[in-house]
Design goal:
The complex is a heterodimer of chains A (about 525) and B (about 70). With about 525 residues, chain A is an all-alpha fold. Chain A has one domain: Cytochrome c oxidase-like, subunit I domain (Cytochrome C Oxidase, Chain A). Chain A is built from 16 helices and no strands. In chain A, helix 12 (about 350-370) runs parallel beside helix 15 (about 420-445). Chain A is globular and about 65 Å long. Helix content of chain B is about 85%, strand content about 0%. Chain B has helices at about 1-5, 10-25, 30-40, 40-65. Chain B is elongated and about 45 Å long. Chain B has one domain. By secondary structure, chain B is mostly helical. Classes of the chains: A mainly alpha (about 525), B mainly alpha (about 70). Bound molecules: protoporphyrin IX containing FE and copper (II) ion. Chain B: InterPro entries: DUF2970. Chain B: Keywords: Membrane, Transmembrane, Transmembrane helix. Chain B: It comes from Nitrosospira multiformis. Chain B: It holds the Pfam family DUF2970.
Chain lengths: ~525, ~70
């Protein structure tokens, strides 16, 4: 340790630019990680404002606040912004900060490419959000951009296509970087099967990204040429097939949902052992299950298309395959529970979010299996039931894991403890308002309320009002998170190197805040 | 562990198949994992996994064909 430290002090004198240039030209994994996380948070608030506008409109039946065209633009952009702008960059931010520190590497493998991956994102976000101001407005056919609508829309759609291209390139470069870092830069003695689970889940996620992002790029490129260069890939009038788009899109789309949940599994698998003060139960099972989930996630895509017209053999195949994949996912839930079993648990904010994750993600998994049953899905497809399902896995799944991870590592990043009381408030408020918002949407969906519609029949009024109140509560609670983070950056109790007494991974051997350059001399791993 | 490396190709194949099967289920005994980790290469496991996925697909197709 001492050796590492001396080294860092020597390097504190090397000249790196300050001010804006520090961030623009940075090749430091910690700086880039910070930028990813702030970018993600800004996009989270942007997408959140859209969501609240949607919920304000749905507070009562009838059209009060926005016109239907704009409402559709909001639902579309809310989805795109949250997926590509908030959730995915947040996980890449975690990877930047944590992967090198957790495997004992000094930085990412391709430091300059890392800078480029990040700085591609702001222009992509500007294109995406700028589409609101294009003639005809932003795309309004849903985040899944199905033709024929996506072929017919104004140039906002082209801007979105370019934004997706750019973000895809950024993701692919980020993934190559992560894969190379993990495979080549581990400290001596850090064998693959000694890697922290967060590193494992990111390794597998990165492979998935490299596999499916080009598929999405292909799909949107075909859309682009259909729109502008007279091809007819998806235009039935010209001999094309709009359903083919759905197949290509979901061949990307289902692995994509796992891309958003596997790193969350990784974060939770770091938090639970720390606060239960026990090693992760079934580490090896977790690694194996994650890998097989990744492979199998590529053969279930058509469960999103049961009502698009499909032979019954196809429906049965995708129904069986989907339900079977829930098995390794379920095993993970058992592993986390077994890790807590008889542990000496404490309930700091990261642990609260991790337990909230397990509880609510499981609920989302169950509603997923319900959607996977063809006869039921024919009823609930395109209703609020699906909305409830995927918000349980994405908000109380991916997002809760992100919050948990942020609280878990903030002391390491800033050198200060966050305000535990406010952190707990943030958790309980999020927990309460999240369920208030989304639990009732199950009922709305089962009762037949369609998604992506600005008006609804009177019988849906009560639940919608409850849901809207919940949404505003949830949205406001997130400002508390912003406050806690800012407060933590500016000061607070000094964090020790270990921070949490149960933390066993390498980052806890570094001082807090982690020095700008860490592990320039690789640590020794027993 | 040295002996494992020299085991019969048949035994090796079986070990890969077992590792992949348990991985699909999501459970693996620690002792079995240790012997996997020391005697199987990542390439073997990945190829095994892809073959496993193909078999999984074919089995499901077969089941679906039978029931419809
Ligand atoms: C137990 C595992 C899961 C199963 C069985 C499952 C099943 C399904 C099914 C059948 C649908 C289609 C419903 C319909 O459109 O009628 C669906 C939609 C969706 N799922 Fe899941 N799911 C699971 C886990 C997840 C996870 C982990 C995520 C993300 C982190 C996720 C995100 C989504 C999203 C975003 C949609 C909606 C896509 C859209 O139409 O906009 N799911 N799920
Ligand atoms: Cu899916």
């Amino acid at each position: 340790m001492a050796a590492v430290h001396d080294h860092d002090i020597a390097h504190a004198h090397d000249h790196h630019p300050t001010g804006l240039m520090r961030w623009l030209t940075s090749t430091n994994h910690k700086d880039i990680g910070t930028m990813y996380l702030w970018f993600s948070f800004i996009m989270f608030l942007t997408g959140g404002v859209m969501a609240l506008t949607i919920r304000a409109e749905l507070f009562q039946p009838g059209i009060q606040i926005v016109n239907p065209e704009f409402f559709n633009q909001l639902t579309t952009l809310h989805g795109l912004v949250m997926i590509f702008g908030a959730i995915m960059p947040a996980f890449v931010g975690f990877a930047n900060w944590q992967v090198p520190m957790m495997i004992g590497a000094p930085d990412m493998a391709f430091a300059r490419m890392n800078n480029w991956s990040f700085w591609l994102l702001p222009p992509a976000a500007l294109l995406l959000l700028g589409s609101f101001f294009a003639p005809g407005g932003a795309p309004a056919g849903g985040w899944t951009i199905y033709p024929p609508l996506s072929v017919q829309m104004g140039m906002g759609m082209d801007m979105t296509i370019f934004a997706i291209h750019i973000m895809g390139a950024s993701s692919i470069m980020g993934s190559i970087n992560i894969i190379t870092t993990i495979l080549n830069m581990r400290a001596p003695g850090m064998t693959l099967m000694k890697m922290p689970l967060f590193v494992w889940t990111w390794l597998i996620t990165a492979y998935l990204l490299v596999l499916v992002m080009p598929v999405l790029a292909g799909a949107v490129t075909m859309l682009l040429t259909d729109r502008n260069f007279g091809t007819n890939f998806f235009n039935a009038a010209g001999g094309g097939d709009p359903v083919m788009f759905q197949h290509i899109f979901w061949f990307f789309g289902h692995p994509e949902v796992y891309i958003m949940i596997l790193p969350a599994f990784g974060i939770v698998s770091e938090i639970i052992p720390t606060f239960a003060r026990k090693p992760l139960f079934g580490y090896s099972s977790m690694v194996y299950a994650t890998a097989s989930i990744a492979i199998l996630s590529c053969i279930v895509w058509a469960h999103h298309m049961f009502t698009a017209g499909m032979p019954v053999t196809g429906q049965l195949f995708f129904m069986y395959a989907t339900m079977l994949i829930a098995v390794p996912t379920g095993v993970k839930v058992f592993n986390w529970t077994a890790t807590m079993w008889r542990g000496s648990m404490t309930f700091e904010t990261p642990m609260l979010f991790a337990i909230g994750f397990i509880f609510l993600f499981t609920l989302g998994g169950f509603s997923g299996v319900v959607c996977a049953i063809v006869p039921i899905d024919i009823q609930v497809q395109d209703t609020y039931y699906v909305i409830a399902h995927f918000h349980y896995v994405l908000v109380s799944g991916a997002l809760f894991a992100i919050f948990g991870g942020a609280y878990y590592w903030l002391p390491k990043w800033t050198g200060h403890m966050y305000d535990e009381t406010l952190g707990k408030w943030h958790f309980w408020l999020s927990m309460f308002f999240f369920n208030l918002t989304f639990f009732v949407q199950h009922f709305l969906g089962l009762a037949g309320m369609p998604r992506r519609i600005p008006d609804y029949a009177l019988q849906f009024a009560d639940f919608n009002m409850i849901s809207s109140i919940g949404a505003f509560g949830f949205g406001l609670s997130q400002l508390l998170f912003l406050y806690v983070v800012l407060k933590c950056i500016r000061g607070g109790a000094k964090a020790s190197a270990e921070v949490w007494e149960g933390g066993k991974t390498l980052e806890w051997t570094l001082p807090s805040p982690a020095p700008y350059h860490s592990f320039e001399t690789p640590p020794v791993i027993r | 562990m040295k002996e494992d490396n020299k085991q019969q190709p048949r035994g090796k194949f079986l070990q890969i198949a077992k590792a992949v099967f348990w991985a699909f289920f999501g459970v693996r005994k620690q002792s079995d994992l240790d012997s996997d980790a020391s005697s199987l290469t990542p390439a073997q496991v990945i190829i095994g996994g892809l073959i496993g996925a193909a078999l999984f697909v074919m089995t499901l197709v077969l089941v679906v064909k039978i029931v419809t």
